Amino acid sequence: MNYFDTSVLQQYFWDIVLQGIKEARNIVSELSSTDDNIGIIGHSSGGFIAAGAFSKVSEVVSAIVINGSCAWVKFEELYREKDGRQPMSSKERISLQEHDPISRMNFEGKKSLLLLHGKEDCTIPIDSQRYFMNVMSDKSTECLQLVEYSGVNHHITIGMLQKSKEWLDKHLGQGCHSKG
Questions:
Q1: Cβ(4)–Cβ(26) below 8 Å
Q2: I want to staple 71 with a disulfide (CB 3.0 to 4.6 A). Which of 83, 102, 141, 152 is the partner?
Q3: Which domains does the chain have, with CATH numbers?
Q4: DSSP, residue by residue, 70-129
Q5: How do strand 112-118 and strand 60-66 relate by DSSP bridges?
Q6: What's the pLDDT score for residue 146?
Q7: Is the dihedral of CA 165, 170, 171, 174 positive or negative?
Q8: pTM over 0.85, yes/no
Q9: Which residues are bridge partners to 64 per DSSP?
């Protein structure tokens, strides 16, 4: 499958994301019998999957979304506008809203979410993540952070990997609300 072919991307993107969440749920159910601190990390479409799994699978206590989105309806609106396509139909909007992490986020207990995004990302523009953070502005910055990287397009940097490691060390080891 050519992910850079716009028609392929438009046709299959959400199916791939939703299938990835199902697969993540299966993996988590296998892991949860041996580990109670499960984290997930994803880049690009994997970031969408990580966001969806974090919002739908209670056993996932920490997630890192790199150059993805946690506000799927907003992302789809912006992406269609960028491509000059028609807005979503009401049926498409309702279907996407059912899965949109923004309406399902739960930061109870040890849950924590880190968003890492290149400011110059042309593939998944940062705007939907900024929108997400605005909607979630009442959440603790210990549990939810967006780090923006200047001069970075749709790439993973060494700085992003370092921040990811630090985040997981802290939040899988102690949890979001622990002192230490």
A1: no
A2: 102
A3: 6-173 (3.40.50.1820)
A4: S-HHHHHHHHHHHHTPPPPPHHHHHHHHTT-GGGT----TT-EEEEEEETT-SSS-THHH
A5: parallel
A6: 97
A7: positive
A8: yes
A9: 41, 114
Q: What is the DSSP letter of 66?
A: E
Residue (of 58, 28, 51) closest to 144 by Cα position? 51
Which DSSP letter does residue 68 get?
A: -
Does the structure show a pLDDT above 90 at 175?
no
Q: How confident is the model at residue 108 (pLDDT cuts 50, 70, 90)?
A: confident
The overall average pLDDT reported for the chain is 90
Tokens found for residue 53: 């799994």
Distance (Å, whole) CA 10 – CA 1: 12
Residue with tokens 């995004």: 117
pLDDT at 180 over 50: no
123 Cβ contact list (under 8 Å, min separation 6): 44, 67, 153, 154
Measured in degrees and rounded to the nearest 5, phi and psi for residue 119 equal -65, -30
Burial of 29 from C-beta contacts in 10 A (0-12 / 13-18 / 19+): exposed
Q: Looking at the predicted structure, is the pLDDT value of residue 78 above 90?
A: yes
**pLDDT: which is higher, 29 or 117:** 117
pLDDT band at 174 (very low <50, low <70, confident <90, very high): low
Q: Do 117 and 69 contact (CB within 8 A), yes or no?
A: no
